[in-house]
Please model this.
Amino acid sequence: MTSTDTTRDLRIDSARLYASLDALGRIGAYTDERTGLVGVCRPSLTDADADGRRLVMGWMRDAGLAITVDAIGNVYGRRAGRDDALPAVMCGSHVDSVPTAGRFDGCLGVLGGLEVVRTLDDAGLVTRRPLVVAFFTEEEGARFGTDMLGSAVATGRIALAEAHALCDAAGVSVGDELRRTGFLGDAPVDAIRPHAYVELHVEQGPVLARKGLRLGVVTGVQGISWQELQLQGRAAHAGTTPISYRADAGLVASLVNVRMRALCDSGDYGHLRATMGVIQPHPGAVNVIPGRVRATVDLRNPEEDALARAEADLHAAVDELAAAHGVSVAWKRMARTPPVPFDASVQAVIADVATRLLLSHEPIIAGAGHDAQEWARVAKTAMIFVPGEFDGISHNPRELSTEAQCADGANTLLHTLLALADEP
Amino acid sequence: MTSTDTTRDLRIDSARLYASLDALGRIGAYTDERTGLVGVCRPSLTDADADGRRLVMGWMRDAGLAITVDAIGNVYGRRAGRDDALPAVMCGSHVDSVPTAGRFDGCLGVLGGLEVVRTLDDAGLVTRRPLVVAFFTEEEGARFGTDMLGSAVATGRIALAEAHALCDAAGVSVGDELRRTGFLGDAPVDAIRPHAYVELHVEQGPVLARKGLRLGVVTGVQGISWQELQLQGRAAHAGTTPISYRADAGLVASLVNVRMRALCDSGDYGHLRATMGVIQPHPGAVNVIPGRVRATVDLRNPEEDALARAEADLHAAVDELAAAHGVSVAWKRMARTPPVPFDASVQAVIADVATRLLLSHEPIIAGAGHDAQEWARVAKTAMIFVPGEFDGISHNPRELSTEAQCADGANTLLHTLLALADEP
Model:
């Protein structure tokens, strides 16, 4: 028999998947005082995170997976293949959360993978290649300040010792917390080099919902440029200072913000997204012209060339705008990551599966960071997005993908893994 | 003899005036920790203000002035005239300060008037009309929240009971503090209706210094419009939210700020000054599109019609900008005062005196509020401005007008008062 023949009509158990998401979501749950909504607070390597990890590992064992924990606390559950010496096909994500999270971010990718294994177990199916369901340490960066930490260490971008030395706001290190929680594993961090990596995730944005799509085939992760802009003008009395004598740092910040949107709207930089999230004028009084402003610039683009051009052109524009108003400029680089394009062949498999399952889908770019962007360094990789309610709000107790939406994603993950695991 | 013959060469004693400014400036003095500069903290009806008031009243008595204190704590020092039944010519200002002040704002007008009296005493001159040197309670509004309080009560804009009931941040009322400090006088607040009122003041702006002028003849006080602007958009993830799906309240605030400057630059609104001093985006994070912004709009104009047109046109522009970006708008009126034009004949006297004293001068608009704008309601009124160093910085320990600059102002005040006091 070939797996294609027997598996074509295979479907995951959506109620079982949703019940698992619900059970994991109760760990670290809290009630938001203002809204009464129940959220999740499970930052990496806290007691809550350790409880969540142990719950998932128990389910992995129940499903017959062989568990490995590596030296950065990444957890791998392995299901043997018929040709068990071949590199595995891996799926996964993370179970840590930001302090004000919902129950889907990360967890859907891990529990979706677990549901695939449960489904194969129920059907008595063994894939050619082994399968691995994994979750990675500190994806959020919410506690120790570096996101995708576990997968970055596993794939060689960050050295283990450096990762262990990172401290949280209270001065507690990753290494100490791995030891304390029992997740300082003995497997080397680079033990796993999968044949392919597929990550199912909630979109965390409005695109799929607004387009009425059931699935997104993720083409890659945007490059991110974070910069801090310090504008220094001259604080002065709003009543006594004529317009021509002003050096209004707040006005220059406003001109920069408007220019950023114009760069996006110009179409000259492809799919550029630009955001000024922080604008802090000093002294910040109704009758004082701002003498100084701190502002932040968040630029994102799926193309490195376009991102770099947007950065350079914005710098030149800011110099010009500031000089015209007698304001000086200082930039500080906060973060910069290049775009990560995902593997075209894996995207094609996902798209074929979605078409076969009659799930409307389109290519989509990932706006936020994901473990997949690290694994893309060492394996062919892509992601599957499902839509979320409320414009895909995330990092918020209102985060919600329905049982049907989660099932669409998990069924697509199931058949994508089956196809990849059949590859020679 | 006529006063014109004997007084033409009369000059004030600049060293005595400056020494008085220095002595008064020591009351409530503090050292700014960051800069090491010595500033003045003498908010209205504090112990420091009461000490300052008593120092000035002692000097008034020494100069033979008859002192009256009214029910809002305004202090009037009267020098008899030859025709003592005629309404007096009054000069004055205030001795209260903002918490981080210099020693010139207000004090120059009061001590300049005292120096005029001392000079007349020394010369043995008696004017036809009586002269009054006055200082008024809570000009700054820094403690009880309503500026020009004492002169507003004296001239009928604010009722005495209402003024007495105003409380500071600690809940202490004006009435209680007047009683506690001994400045709840028994004179009725409307006892003084002068023939003319002249106020000498530091410019508190850069115009005179930048133009190299020694004196400004103040044509009036700008109208002031303070509004709070609440913009409500939609907070969203900077990475996952395409530009076309955004409702960026921060961008709309920026567009409004840029539009405000364009209104000023258009020339369509005369001498319009517009300032956005407060810009507070929420939540204020680098990777979150601002969902809500609180901003303030400060509009000033010497012409009521132009100010009202600027307000209306800005409202229409904000509606349009906000609607184009899916953002809603709420305005809140914070303050609104109409422009106060000063008396042309008093301005002419001041300009004539300045010309005769060989002091370069030009007409200038007052950008900040002054007691004179209240007295203009009941008497012909104008003001004399002298330049300040450091672009006329004020409400700051760096506030500085030199001895020569103060003397220019006081000599102009002297001869202006002599001319007005001679009027039939």
Notes: The domain at 230-337 of chain A is CATH 3.30.70.360 (Alpha-Beta Plaits). Residues 353 and 412 of chain A are 6 Å apart (CA to CA). Chain A is about 35% helix and 20% strand.
